[in-house]
């Protein structure tokens, strides 16, 4: 129960009224359920979008409502990390300055442009999936994003000490990677999205490896914002794979 409450409190805006154990050991155990947790949250967002698709309304509204409900449910948590990563990593500054920029709560030009492209990519993918009657594949996108996050956190290392990301970076059991990976393949199979799902999974793995190498070279490792960046791009890559294999 603590694992589920930890994931809900950390990754969503759903109120949790009970005390939660936030130790590294508890966080490590929770990662076994991260993919399932993300998929269920995304399924809830897809349900809201499907309500629009069932009504005599344009499927555009279904796609927009799916995305909006996802943003509200997660509090745009990974989007914030995505924007901070764009601001810092594309600034061309020194390692110390990059990390300072990423910690700055203000949104810069690279972050704003990146966030615009991120929202547009998600919106267009959901629009096309909705038009094809495949909006229920959105949970697979969310699961792919969490696989990218888990992969980055497993490969690490942590670039900034005393960061909340220490809960995850360098604290991912190998078993959690196997469990979440198997769940992804099973979800793709039962959703009848196996070809596109596998294509997206390969893209996620390659992108994660490349991003971790990039972060190690530029700032000596990863911080929490990098995990958000991986999650957001991972979702888009899976979505692209789904559209390439209708």
Structural write-up:
With 246 residues, the chain is mainly alpha-helical. The protein is built from eleven helices and no strands. The chain has helices spanning 2-11, 24-30, 34-54, 59-74, 77-89, 95-103, 109-131, 138-155, 174-190, 194-219, 224-244. It is globular.
Quick rundown:
With 246 residues, the chain is mainly alpha-helical.
Shape: globular
How many individual helices?
11
Question: Which percent band covers the strand fraction?
Answer: under 5%
Radius of gyration: 17 Å
Instruction: List SSEs in N-to-C order.
Output: HHHHHHHHHHH
Oligomeric state as shown: single chain
Biggest β-sheet description: none
Q: Which structural class best describes the helix and strand composition?
A: mainly alpha
Provide the residue-averaged pLDDT. 89
Distance between the termini: 38 Å
Helix content: over 70%
Number of E-type strands? 0
What is the secondary structure topology, with strand pairs?
Elements: H1 2-11, H2 24-30, H3 34-54, H4 59-74, H5 77-89, H6 95-103, H7 109-131, H8 138-155, H9 174-190, H10 194-219, H11 224-244
Helix pairs in contact: 1-2, 3-4, 3-8, 4-7, 5-6, 5-7, 5-11, 7-11, 8-9, 8-10, 8-11, 9-10, 10-11
Relevant terms:
246 residues; 11 helices; globular; mainly alpha
């Amino acid at each position: 129960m603590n694992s589920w409450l930890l994931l809900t409190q950390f990754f969503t805006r759903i109120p949790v009224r009970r005390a939660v154990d936030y130790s590294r050991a508890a966080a490590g155990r929770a990662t076994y359920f991260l993919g399932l947790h993300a998929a269920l949250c995304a399924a809830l967002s897809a349900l809201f979008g499907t309500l629009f698709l069932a009504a005599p309304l344009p499927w555009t509204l279904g796609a927009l409502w799916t995305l909006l409900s996802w943003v509200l449910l997660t509090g745009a948590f990974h989007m914030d990390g995505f924007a901070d990563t764009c601001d810092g990593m594309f600034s061309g500054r020194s390692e110390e300055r990059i990390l300072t920029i990423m910690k700055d709560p203000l949104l810069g030009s690279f972050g704003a442009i990146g966030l615009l492209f991120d929202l547009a990519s998600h919106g267009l993918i959901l629009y096309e999936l909705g038009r094809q009657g495949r909006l229920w594949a959105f949970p697979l996108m969310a699961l792919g994003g969490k696989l990218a996050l888990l992969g980055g956190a497993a490969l690490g290392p942590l670039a900034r000490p005393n960061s909340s990301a220490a809960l995850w970076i360098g604290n991912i059991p190998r078993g959690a990677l196997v469990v979440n990976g198997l769940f992804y393949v099973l979800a793709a199979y039962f959703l009848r999205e196996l070809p596109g799902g596998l294509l997206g999974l390969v893209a996620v793995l390659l992108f994660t490896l490349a991003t971790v190498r990039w972060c190690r070279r530029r700032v000596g490792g990863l911080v929490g914002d990098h995990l958000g960046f991986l999650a957001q791009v991972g979702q888009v890559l899976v979505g692209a794979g789904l559209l390439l294999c209708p």
